[in-house]
Amino acid sequence: MKEILELLENDARLTPRQIAAMLDLEEKTVAGIIKDLEEKKVILGYFTLVNWDKVGEEKVTALIEVKISPQREVGFDAVAERVYRFPEVRTVRLVSGTYDLLVLVQGNTLKEVAEFVSQKLALLENVLSTTTHFVLKTYKHQGTIVEDGEEDRRLMITP
Amino acid sequence: MKTPRKWQDRINPSVQEIPFSGIRRFFDLVSEMKGVISLGVGEPDFVTPWHIREACVYSLEKGYTMYTSNKGMLELREEIARYLAETYRVVFDPRNEILITVGVSEGLDLAMRTILCPGDEVLIPEPSYVSYAPVTKLAGARPVHLKTSAENGFVVTAGMVEKAVTSRTKALVLCYPNNPTGATIDRQHLLEIAEVVRKHDLIVVSDEIYDRLTYSGEHTCVSALPGMRDRTILLNGFSKSYAMTGWRVGYAAGNRDFISAMTKIHQYTMLCAPITAQAAALEALKNGRPGMQRMVEQYNRRRRLLLQGFQEMGLPCFEPRGAFYAFPDISNTGMSSEEFAQELLQEEKVAVVPGNAFGDQGEGFVRCSYAASVEDLTEALRRMGRFLKRRESGGRILTAFFTGEEPKKEGIYQTL
Ligand SMILES: Cc1ncc(COP(=O)(O)O)c(C=O)c1O
User: Fold this and answer.
1) Do B309 and A23 touch (CB under 8 A)?
2) Which of B77, B243, B271, B374 has its CA 20 to 30 A from that of B12?
3) What was the ipTM of the complex prediction?
């Protein structure tokens, strides 16, 4: 099971048939395991890593440090939920250190993101402060180097 | 470009006589084409792991740009001795029983030049890596081929050795896991061979460059067999297991007389292996094990993928248990290895290496390397399947006029 997940994490397009061949299993078995993992929400989704810059699509991404005051009974989780419910918010993580939530927000323009922070995020109850870092350039994303993927430079035939 | 006739005459006949590698001829053909998926590459598709490259950069920053001792950096030799002792329980003194070479390629040449005299015979399994016979000839000796085949798992047997031995036989070359067949050899077989080797007082030159790329069973190091350490010249390197082909670094290990004599030639012809590559090799041995194992795991998965693909298209293939090659039998197609490779390339743009590049015994086979991405392997299999289907129906595709009709099945193919 772990091997199947590793393979899919690297390449979500692998078919159960290919995976079965690679791991010396039955195709049916693999398909069953994958289905099960999907149902159990171990596999949460399949996505494509897109370099939007290359198609001239300007997306604005900001990493926002959020300090919050935990609520009685529910602690950080209830506050986090109020943050992650916004569709603009792509990722929310509770972290240790000088702030509490690391929030990744994506929008179409700088203004849009800035407004979201000042009008929505910062105004939430229990949010004490925010610090916004706009992303200027992405070098590596999801373990993938954005620019130079080190393409195959080998000769076509070698002994 | 042709050398003018008069200069040709001035070339040492023993150099003139050896042909260019069959691989090279095919290479010229391939390199002119675009959109080719190559399963013809005999090296890892991984780039050298970053920590190794980084260690090399650091060594340059620190100014390690000079010669090393002829034998190579002592620290590297010590690390190699430790590796061999830990992995195979065979002990070599790093001071005088290990020599760092410019790849196994140089180690092989040194070994042959060190032990061979004119008139000596060397037993070389066939099919095998392209260098053994030419290097033997350049050392003035005569290659004698031991013909292995799919039926006997492409391994040399004690019986074959016994039968081929004459009073002039000096050495036996072994290479397991094998290029081009992917065959491995088990300990029992090796013990039997070792007995014959000792009986006839032969020397073994064992090229174990693929030792870490063994997918089923354990690799047996020839030097580690009882009574074999001193009569074996063990050759190994970093090219395959650590994805370091371009660094040109390897090593030879053996008794101190052989290593000392090899060092003499190395001293005058090579001086030393590049220090930069040695620094990288040191990092590979010290910290590269986990990364190497991950690569091996990936080769293994691709190996199974390729084998299943061959099975589905009805291409008989002996199960390779090591290296990163599969050696399917294409004789049922009625084509020769070269025809098969050439037509597959022209019609489907998949490059494989004709088996006869590895000796006559490789005729009827092609070498497919699975050091390629899963994506490329899958596409290559699809194309090969299409190619075979067309052949099955007896027709060769006329590229421009192909109508896409379902070809008639004549059931020429059978699966193993
Ligand atoms: C069996 C075998 N020996 C030796 C070599 C050459 O190794 P190196 O890069 O260490 O010179 C190769 C490379 O293809 C090989 O397949």
Assistant:
1) no
2) B271
3) 0.82
